[in-house]
Design goal:
The chain contains 8 helices and 7 strands, in the order βαβαβαβαβαβαβαα. With 254 residues, the protein is an alpha/beta fold. The chain has one domain: NAD(P)-binding Rossmann-like Domain (Rossmann fold, 3-Layer(aba) Sandwich), CATH 3.40.50.
């Protein structure tokens, strides 16, 4: 039976790479993104037949309409990936950055919950399905200038864990993916060294494997998993001394 996958953030970056990998494996996709031209270009290059939904994931009504349309055409999906996300440097001391903080939290956290919402009851009734939250290794420790992004990704990790426990025994699984540094338009703006930088295509292969195996939690690449474990146990005094010297993420317009 053909696998069906609904994925937000499909017009670029990690979402696009995962969409390509799933399609190569024969899946039928619901592709969600803000840019219709990019989505149509992606659909044209993919094998198989796929649905395209051009919308902002913060528009709850449009997002849920897309979810119901996809289910009406293809049934309850096997996999739902909340892949849409944004990253921008912020400073809480600046009033003008408060709106950016709100936007990052809304897109990265609330839109993840809103993406999952219309599928949960149908998946529970079906007794199967996998919900996938895309977090980041930035969820592990706070980084200068990235308070909103780090907080949002930490929230995704804890939200997905809570959801996983809630759905235990229903047949519905929850997978949390924590990408390290992946070579995408988002990371190209980073003003600092990015260890273990990974091509998006290589990331997608590993991510799709983890999703299909219904792994609960996976850091990709694996080397960043070890870095994350070490960062968890570094004393605050040492961590603060070292990372306070790190170049901060650029704010919007910088």
């Amino acid at each position: 039976m053909t696998q069906t996958v609904f994925i937000t953030g499909a017009s670029s970056g990690l979402g696009l790479a995962m969409a390509q990998q799933f399609a190569q494996n024969g899946a039928t996709l619901g592709l969600v993104g803000r840019r219709l031209d990019a989505l149509e270009a992606l659909r044209a290059q993919l094998p198989g037949t796929h649905e395209v939904y051009s919308l902002d994931v913060n528009d709850e009504a449009l997002l849920h309409a897309a979810a119901h349309d996809f289910m009406a055409k293809h049934g309850v999906p096997d996999v739902v990936i909340a892949g849409a996300g944004i990253s921008v440097g912020t400073l809480s001391e600046l009033y003008e950055d408060l709106e950016q903080i709100r936007r990052v939290i809304g897109t990265n956290v609330f839109a993840t919950t809103s993406t999952f919402h219309p599928f949960i009851i149908p998946m529970k009734n079906k007794g199967s399905g996998t919900l996938v939250g895309i977090a980041s290794v930035a969820a592990i420790r706070g980084l200068p200038g990235a308070g909103a992004y780090c907080a949002s990704k930490a929230a995704v990790v804890q939200y997905c864990e809570s959801l996983r426990v809630e759905l235990y025994g229903t047949g519905v699984k929850v997978t949390t993916i924590l990408p390290g540094f992946i070579d995408t338009p988002m990371t190209k703006q980073n003003p600092y060294t990015m260890p273990f930088l990974m091509a998006p295509e290589d990331f997608a292969v590993k991510a799709v494997q983890a999703i299909n195996q219904q792994v609960s939690y996976r850091v990709i690449p694996w080397q960043m998993g070890w870095v994350a474990k070490l960062m968890r146990i570094v004393p605050n005094a040492l961590y603060d001394h070292v990372f306070s010297k790190r170049k901060r993420k650029a704010r919007a317009g910088e």
